[in-house]
Amino acid sequence: MYTDLPEYLNNPLKNLLKNKGNNLKPMKKNEISILGSGLIGSLLSIYLKKRGLKVDIYEKRADNRKGKYLEEGRSINMALSDRGWKALDDLGLTEKVKPLTIPMYGRQIHDEHGKTSFIPYGKEGQAIYSISRGRFNQLLMEEAEEVGVDIHFEHKIVDVNLRDHTLTVSNPEVEKETIASEVIIGSDGAYSALRNAMLKQVRFDYKQEYISHGYKELTIPATSEGEFALDPNALHIWPRGSFMLIALPNPDKSFTCTLFLPFEGKRVCFENIRDDRDLEGVFKTYFDDAYQIMPQLKKEYFDNPTSALINIECFPWMEHKALLIGDASHAMVPFYGQGMNCGFEDCYILDKLISKFGTNAWELVFAKFQKVRKPDTDAICQLAMDNFEEMKNVVSDPKFQIRKKIEARLHELYPLDWIPLYTMVTFSDIPYSEAYAQGKLQASIMDKVMADPLITQNWNKLDYEDIIDQLDKVKAV
Ligand SMILES: Cc1cc2nc3c(=O)[nH]c(=O)nc-3n(C[C@H](O)[C@H](O)[C@H](O)COP(=O)(O)OP(=O)(O)OC[C@H]3O[C@@H](n4cnc5c(N)ncnc54)[C@H](O)[C@@H]3O)c2cc1C
Known about the structure:
Layout: H1 7-10, H2 12-16, E1 28-35, H3 39-50, E2 55-58, E3 77-80, H4 82-90, H5 94-97, E4 102-104, E5 106-110, E6 116-120, E7 128-132, H6 133-147, E8 150-152, E9 156-161, E10 166-170, E11 177-186, H7 193-199, E12 205-220, E13 235-239, E14 244-249, E15 255-262, H8 276-286, H9 288-291, H10 297-303, E16 307-315, E17 318-319, E18 322-324, H11 327-330, H12 339-357, H13 362-392, H14 398-413, H15 421-426, H16 432-450, H17 455-458, H18 464-476
Parallel strand pairs: 1-2, 1-11, 2-8, 5-13, 11-18
Antiparallel strand pairs: 3-7, 4-7, 5-6, 9-10, 10-11, 12-15, 12-16, 13-14, 14-15, 17-18
The protein binds flavin-adenine dinucleotide.
Flavin-adenine dinucleotide binds near residues 35, 187, 188, 328 and 341.
């Protein structure tokens, strides 16, 4: 007997007949099984199918194209940026996705008195793109089916056996079915069934952290004239220190707002908003300009779920021919708008490794993938945590805006030497870990520049060449 082969290959007859719930039916055997038809699973299935592989996806939800898309408390729209576009472009999907998006060229900051200021995200013309999660997911599933992927809706993975490479699937017709699969890919999100199976393996590292804050979705509808109530080409932020509200535009001229608050505490938090009066008090005090254009606030606030935010890091991501990808391997808090973009980049990189090593070397491909990708996903998870502080706190500080202007000027004058961290993460495909390291060096120089008490008056007269020299010196150390 070959000990490194899955059990079903060593004892095929016995195992092919071992299907639970239907003892005599031969066990189905897949080439590639993907768990979850979310954004990452759907995109990855297109990549794999285009390589001529037979791909089956198991999705626990019903087919959302047949009814109203149920968001289950997940964000309704999200920001798509360069890393995401790169994978879409690679698959020839850009022109199909673009009409679903609205460009946002910068942050529109709303202060407590309703005054606004605009901070561009990058150079002129650079934008991140608001897109509906539900509509985007539908499009990717349609594309997957069009190239021949089989999506099995209402098929929940209840167990994964890593020893004999089988999935236990429950679906409305057969209570439980066991399916063998040569390759298993877990793109089943932050609460992954494949990761649960890996957790039982020796030397599997796993860390999860819920942050103190949760979020709730709210809406700013279109005006009575059917127009956007705010500038649609910006991501709106109401930063208030320990909490914040943000809003992203939708094609129907509404905005989806996300309110981020601590779950509990002495000041403004979810626990302390118990009735309409509490809610009105918070919104009139801190978000009055938004409050005036949120007629459904009270109903939505108390009807919509309050969701938690989690950061997950684990390793290894593979066990033989089974691999974790997307949120299943690295769920991050949403403050850099990179979770999906990073997952799409995962798919792009995995595909290039398959191209290099072929479809008969899965273990090698997966080993290379996790080695190259893990430092980068660790870096973006950390950056996402750090950006939470920036978004709820410092973006409203006038010095932050000066800092951004200085960095933009440095980038304009020395485009290869100084690239603002946000630009590296959002508008480039520089590995996240390199962006993180370079960002730290730049921040150390900027902290010194900003320490000048007269910087708000003098920033225009800075010796920019000297700043670049300082950066070169710290890089050389
Ligand atoms: C509030 C918020 C805002 C965000 N904003 C952005 C943003 O602006 N930009 C960005 O890039 N990212 C953003 N993200 C992150 C982004 O949502 C995730 O990174 C992305 O959805 C991950 O996709 P995924 O396919 O890996 O997982 P998921 O989207 O979670 O999909 C997993 C799929 O697997 C299915 N599934 C789960 N368990 C099983 C099972 N046992 N059997 C079968 N099927 C199963 C689920 O039903 C689902 O369809 C945001 C996240 C949050 C919470």
